[in-house]
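Researcher: I've been going back and forth with a colleague about how Beta-mannosidase B might be arranged in three dimensions. Neither of us has a model we trust, so I'd like an independent prediction. The organism is Microlunatus ginsengisoli, in case that matters for your notes. Sequence below.
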Amino acid sequence: MTRPSTTRRLPIDGFELAHREIGLAPTDLAHGDQAWVPAVVPGGVHESLLALGTIPDPYVDRNEDAVRWMEERDWWYRTTFDSPPDLRPGAGTRLVFHGLDTVADVWLNGELLGHHENMFRPAEYEIAELLRASNDLLIRFSPPLAGLSASPASVAQLQRVAATLMPDLDADVDVSGFSPDLTVATQRRKATMSWGWDFGPRVPSIGIWRPVELIITPCARITGHHVRTDAIDHDAETAELTVLVEVETGPAAGTLHASIELTSATGRSHHITIPVRDGVAEGHITVDDAELWWTHDLGDPSLYQVRIELGTDEGPCDVVTDRIGIRTIAVNRAPDAEGGRLFQFVLNDVPVFARGANWLPASMLVGSVTPERHRELISLAREGGMTMLRVWGGGVYEHDGFYTAADEAGVLIWQDFMFACADYPSEDAGLQREVQLEAEYQLRRLRNRASLALWSGNNEVHLLHGFAYQEYEPGNWGWHFFHKILPETVRRLDPTATYWPGSPWGEDTPEGFMAVNGVLDGDRHAWEVWHGFDAGAGGGEEYASVGEARHFRRYARDRGRFISEFGIHSSPALSTLQRWLPAAELAIHSPSFDAHNKDHPKDKGDALLEVVTGVPTTIEEYVDFTMASQAEGMKFGIEHYRRRQPICSGTLIWQFNDVWPGITWSLVDYDTVPKAAYYATARAYAPVLASFVHHDGELSLWVSNSGRTPVSTTATLSLRGFDGSRLLQEDVPVRIAAATSERVWAAPLNGSTQTYAWVGSEDGTFPDNRLFFTDVKDLPLPDAELRTTVRVTGSASAEVTIEADQFAYLVRVTSTHPAARFSDNYFDLTPGQTRTVRVTDLPRDFDPADLTAASYVGAGR
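Model: Here is an independent structure prediction for Beta-mannosidase B. You can compare it with whatever you and your colleague have in mind.
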C-alpha cells in the first residue's frame, strides 16, 4: 500500500498593496494612479506606508488627523505563488488567511472565493479545483465600517447612558457622539478601540494582520486538540488528563489513530495512542510525578512538550506540537464572612489573590506587534509582581506570542471576548453566526494555554446597559451572545473552564441592577476614584471639592470582592514625551499635548492634582506630579484591597500598557518605560505586604500574606519626623497564615504633617513601606542630598548605590537610554539609608556618567 503523505503548511508572502477609490472591481484596477508598493504582512497598510516614508507617523504630534483618509479608501493586496510541483490530484488544498482586518473580498486566478468581515477568525477556502502552476491572489479591503449605519437602539442607549453619567447636560443636547461610531461599530467584528478610545487615537488598522498559508491534506489533518487537566492528587503527585484530537480527513485517509506523547521539563514522558472515530480521538492519561504549572509567585510554571501524530498503519498524516501546563483553575464563589460571596481564583487547590492589571494591544497597529515586544511587556509584568493580566474586550484576542510568554512567565490570563461598552444587536442572525464561529475558533486556539484562567463575555456592556435601562432582561442588546452563544460554546469546547458573563458582573439581588458592579458578589470596576461618581461602592455624599470626590482615599470605602478595573491618569516619562511631541509643544495643555490625552475634559486630572500635589506649572512638574499622584493612589488602593484578603481576592489595575504614546492610566508607557506607579505597584504586589492604616486617631499595622505557606518575621516600625527625629520605634513579632491578612499592631496616634510612619523587616520578608499623614503637597519634604556611586558590572549593566542625608521622596535612577531596566526605582530613602539599583539593558560600553539619581521635583519648594 502507498505510504500516505503528511499535511504540509506552506507560507504565502510577497504581497504588494495599492489604494483605489471605493467600489472598483479587479478589472478596474488599472484605472488608479497609485503604484503597487511592498506590503508588510503580517501587518497593515499603515505599517507598509510608514516603512516607505509616504505617510507621517500617526503617533507623532497631531498626525493622527493626517492619516484619517486611509480608512476611507479601498486597499488592494496582491501576490503570486506557485503550486507545489508534487501536488497530488485530489489532495485537499485550503487557502487560509489567519487574520483579515476586516472587510475583505478574495479572488484567486480571477475567481471570487468569498467575502469576509471578521478580524477575529480565519478566512478559509478550498481551492484545489482553481489551482494552476502559477497563481494570482488578490484581496480588496473595503472601509472598515462600509455599508453600516447607526443603530437607533444603540443611539438611544448611549443617550440614556450620557444622561445618567452627565445629568447636568441640557435636555436638547445631541449626545449621539458620546462614544463616536460605537453605534455603528457594534455591527462589525473588529477591535472596538479602532475608532478612538479614552486612551488612544482613531487609527483603525487595515490589512492582512496575521499569516497566510496553503494547507495541503493528502491524508488527514489535525484541526484542533485539547489536553486538559481533570484532577490532581497532591498526595500521590499524580494528575488525570483528558486528551482530545479533532481531525479532518482527506481523500486518501484510511483507518486513523492519534499518538500523543507528553514530556516534562525534566524529561519524563507519557504516551497514549487513540483510535479516531467520527473525526475525533479522545483518551485519558495518568501522569505520575506530575510537575504542576504555578504562577511565578507560588511555584514554577512547569510546561510539558506535547507531540500529536495523526496517522494510519502505513505512516503519519499530520503532526502537531504544543506546550501545556498541568494545573486546575476554578473560581470559588462560596459565602463569605461579610454576607456576600467570594470571587476567588483557586489554582491547583490553592486560593489566589490575583495581583495584576488590564492588558491593551501593544499598538493600535495590531498586526505588527512582535513576539519580542510581547515578551518584553510580559516580563515587565512578572518583574512587577503581577500574577494576572486581563485581556480587555475592546482590543483583540492576542497573538500566539503573547500567550506563550504568559505561559512561560507564570502569569494568569483573564480573557475577555471582544465586546465592549455598548449594546450589541445580538438578535441579528448574521452577527450571531459570526460570533459563534469566532468563539469556536478562539476557544480551540487558546484552550490549551496553561495561563488561561477565565473566559469573560464582555467589557462593561452589562454595566452600561444597566445604567441606561436598570435591567438585564433578554433582548437585542447582547444578551444572546453573553448568556447563550458564548457560555454554551465554552461548555462544549473547554468544559473545565470558568465562563463569566462579563466584566464587571455580579448577582447579589439586594443591590438591584447595580449588582453588576456591586460590592457583595463578582468583580467590579472601581471608577469612583478618578471619575468622581458612585459606581456601585457607595459613598456618593457631597465632597468638599471635585478633587476630593476623585481622590484615591475613596478606595478605603470599597468593599468589593474582586476589583478588575481601577486607575489614575499620569504622564509618560519625559523622554517619551520628548520623542513623540515637537519641542515647541512640550508644554502643559499645548495643542499636541492635549491631542495625546484622549480623556475628557483635558484638565480633568487637575482637580485631583490640586489636592494631592498641587497643580503643576511646567512640563517637568507635570510628569513628576502626575506620576506621584498615580503611584500614591495605586499604593493606597492595593494596600486597602489586600488587607481585605480573602474577602477581596484580586486587583487588576487599569491599565498595564499603552496603545500609543499617550497620557493615560498605564503603568508602563508606549516606549516601555515604567512609570513611578509601576514600581509602587511592584512593592505593593510583593507576596508579603506590610501596610499602615490611620483612622479615628489610631495607627495600625497590617500584614498580608498571599503565598502558599505561613510567614514568621519581625516587623520594625517607627514614627519619624521629616527633620530626622525618631519619635517611636517598636519590634512587632508577626506570624500570618497563608492567603490571609491580619492586623498585628495598633496604638492611639494622631500623626501630623511633620511625621511619617515607617516599617521594615530585617530578613527582607516584605519590602519597606511608609505612611504619610497628609497629601504630598502638604509634606515638609527636605531638599535631600543624594550621594551616588556607579559600579559597572558588565558591558551593558551597572549597579547604582544611593544614599540620602535627609528623607528623600520618589528617588529614581535616571538614564539617557529609555530602554534601560531598573531593579527598583521611585522609592523613598530615610536619612542615612542606602539602596542599590541594578541597571540592565544599557547600550554596550555605555558611559557610567549617563546614570544619575534624582528625587521628586517638588521637594524643598
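Researcher: What would you highlight for our discussion?
Model: I'd start with this: The radius of gyration is 28 Å. After that, consider the following. Residues 169-177 have pLDDT under 50 and may be disordered.
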